[in-house]
Amino acid sequence: MTEPSRLAVRKTYKLYIGGAFPRSESGRSYVVTSSKGDFLANASRASRKDARDAVQAARKAFPGWSGATAYNRGQILYRVAEMLEGRRAQFVAELVDADGVSARKAGELADATVDRLVWYAGWSDKIGAVRGAANPVAGPYFNLSTTEPTGVVAVVAPQGAPLLGLISVIAPVIVTGNTCVVVASERAPLPAITLAEVLATSDLPGGVVNLLTGAAPELAPWLASHMDVNAIDLTGCAAELAVTCEQQAAENLKRVLRPPNATPDWLATPGLDRMTAFLETKTVWHPTGI
């Protein structure tokens, strides 16, 4: 008698909303396959109701996160980088499966992702000094400009860079005090799901980052039209979808970060644009001598 071969457990991954892992309220899921077409897992297909729940969780988390010190936010991002590096092997395997790249290339992308988090963590208590100003005015006043987070930001993550691209759009949003609802890559959602597990076991408060898996054409227009979303990043949207989302966002005067004209080089050192895109400038006048 030979031992029967073991059947692998087919995983169905959940969403990440408010620090918890709920199933989609619709009960839908879809099959995630490797670059060679092999089955990898099932992922939840988020619905509009899930998107609304994620926005509600992000709004609830906003006062505490925006009220934290910039230094504390930097510490937490650094902690996320530490934990992500601790699961490097899993991320490498997922990138190999998703993109069909070599293990060496996947390792470089995983390392660049950790470095990107550390880079943004270092900016947490510096971006305000760089973008703020003491303004000269004609009168006996101090005139000071300071930066404040915009609020809840919806993010459509890039489809072709499921880990480094994902971190490159999330980190600048949250390091400046915003909270976010992220639509992960539909084609390769597993790195985003593993990232959610990292976030859930780090010091990041629940609701600061909410990750939805599913179809961007289904979710993005509803996030663009949602009255409690203050801004939207359309980096991962195709041209036609981006136009639709911009039209929806115009109805409630959202800040919109348009998708780039060319495929971004995610390995390049980022500038400050993604951090400043979702910052407001507050100017205060104060009489001198008081």
UniProtKB/TrEMBL annotation:
<dbReference type="InterPro" id="IPR015590">
    <property type="entry name" value="Aldehyde_DH_dom"/>
</dbReference>
<dbReference type="InterPro" id="IPR016161">
    <property type="entry name" value="Ald_DH/histidinol_DH"/>
</dbReference>
<dbReference type="Pfam" id="PF00171">
    <property type="entry name" value="Aldedh"/>
</dbReference>
<keyword id="KW-0560">Oxidoreductase</keyword>
<dbReference type="InterPro" id="IPR016162">
    <property type="entry name" value="Ald_DH_N"/>
</dbReference>
<protein>
    <submittedName>
        <fullName>Aldehyde dehydrogenase family protein</fullName>
    </submittedName>
</protein>
<feature type="domain" description="Aldehyde dehydrogenase">
    <location>
        <begin position="26"/>
        <end position="256"/>
    </location>
</feature>
